[in-house]
Amino acid sequence: AQSVTQLDSHVSVSEGTPVLLRCNYSSSYSPSLFWYVQHPNKGLQLLLKYTSAATLVKGINGFEAEFKKSETSFHLTKPSAHMSDAAEYFCVVPSLGTYKYIFGTGTRLKVLA
Amino acid sequence: EAQVTQNPRYLITVTGKKLTVTCSQNMNHEYMSWYRQDPGLGLRQIYYSMNVEVTDKGDVPEGYKVSRKEKRNFPLILESPSPNQTSLYFCASRDPLGQGYNEQYFGPGTRLTVT
């Protein structure tokens, strides 16, 4: 069965420093991958999605992610963290052969002033 | 404005008292789904619906029911809520294209407490 692993439950960075949130998925084939962000007491918002058109995907708010088939990874990065980036981030993969989605357990990003 | 709405946003109830959480979308999406979010577990899919009158179980369907009588609405029903159903619930919808190519749009969430 398809699975997705977010390697860090919590990440702390200083404002202005790079952000790296890690995500690995279980299969070398996936038609799509997503990153969502959830700000405190809010719903989930799509940050970016991979749909096999390009391995480097740019999203909103300066985030991007690179699909690496050989490493089965889809890590989320941002060159310079902002205080408003403090939130929980979820990596999501469709469950192959079904109409279901599988969420990672989330990474809570803390940005220090 | 394209959106998914849920009601109520907050609900405190007692064990065994039937409740319904409503979900509605105005994007004419065929696919709708319910999730629960629990600390450390991410979001887990409860039920989903590919279209009117077509529903299927997600990964944690026990204790829940759904119905899809209209395209825009997908209510979640807890016939006999128990404390282990205390959670944050999200409804989502998306265009149907294939088995996961499209992103989902999420509602604002319903925080349910069962005492």
Describe the structure using short key phrases:
heterodimer; A: 113 residues; mainly beta; six-stranded mixed sheet; four-stranded antiparallel sheet; 51% strand; B: 115 residues; seven-stranded mixed sheet; 11 strands; 0% helix; 50% strand; globular
What report would you give on this structure?
The complex is a heterodimer of chains A (113) and B (115). Chain A is mostly beta strands and 113 residues long. Chain A has strands at residues 4-6, 10-14, 19-21, 23-25, 33-38, 44-50, 56-58, 64-68, 73-78, 87-94, 101-103, 107-112. Chain A is globular, with a radius of gyration of 13 Å. With 115 residues, chain B is mainly β. Chain B contains no helices and eleven strands. In chain B, strands 2, 4, 5, 6, 9, 10 and 11 form a seven-stranded mixed beta sheet that branches. The model of chain B has no long low-confidence stretch (mean pLDDT 93). The chains are: A mainly beta (113), B mainly beta (115).
Strand share of the residues of chain A?
Answer: over 45%
Low-confidence stretches of chain B: none
Number of strands of chain A: 12
- Could you tell me the mean pLDDT of chain A? 91
Largest interface pair: A-B, 27 and 28 residues
What is the alpha-carbon Rg of chain B in Å?
13 Å
Order of helices and strands of chain A: EEEEEEEEEEEE
Mean model confidence by pLDDT of chain B: 93
Protein structure class of chain A: mainly beta
Give the N-to-C terminal Cα separation of chain A: 41 Å
What's the shape of chain B?
globular
Distance between the termini of chain B: 36 Å
Q: How many helix segments of chain B? A: 0
Unreliable parts of chain A: none
Beta-strand proportion of chain B: over 45%
The count of helical stretches of chain A stands at: 0
Helix % of chain A is under 10%
| Helix proportion range of chain B | under 10%
What's the story with the biggest beta sheet of chain A? 6 strands, mixed
Seen as an oligomer or otherwise, the chain set is heterodimer
Order of helices and strands of chain B: EEEEEEEEEEE
